[in-house]
Specification:
- There is one protein chain.
- The protein is mainly beta and about 120 residues long.
- About 5% of the residues lie in helices and about 40% in strands.
- It contains two helices and ten strands, in the order E-E-E-E-E-H-E-E-E-E-E-H.
- Strand 4 and strand 5 form a beta hairpin.
Length: about 120
């Protein structure tokens, strides 16, 4: 999976190198992670740190976004950072993830029952 400042992340077929899915957030994407336990990916990014001090900033651009991997549908957002997010990683058991940002913080997000219910909100057939 790749992340890009062109607002898109792509999931690739490693055999054919063809894109399998495209996730367009409308915002710069610096990092992504694929869950090994659910059909989810997480994406994050935000405006360049040098520009944050010079313009009005929408704090939602620094949220971690949860997407359904197969449907390319955004399922939710998790806030916490007040600067661009540069790294994400799901835990091996899929019950949490860590995010690191230019605000100087590494945050560990524990995913509870609300996270487990996200797939019930989309039409998965």
């Amino acid at each position: 999976m790749t992340a890009s400042v062109d607002t898109k992340a792509k999931l690739w077929d490693t055999r054919t190198l063809a894109p399998l899915q495209t996730f367009d957030t409308g915002r710069s994407i610096n990092c992504c992670s694929i869950s090994s336990k659910s059909d989810h990916v997480i994406l994050a990014g935000g405006q360049e740190a040098v520009d944050v001090a010079l313009t009005r900033v929408d704090p939602a651009q620094f949220h971690v976004r949860i997407w359904h991997r197969s449907l390319a549908e955004e399922l939710g957002q998790i806030g916490g950072h007040f600067g661009p997010v540069n790294t994400l990683s799901y835990s091996p058991d899929g019950s949490s993830f860590a995010s690191g940002g230019e605000d100087g913080y590494v945050r560990v997000h524990h995913l509870g029952d609300d996270y487990a219910a996200l797939d019930e909100e989309v039409d998965v057939e």
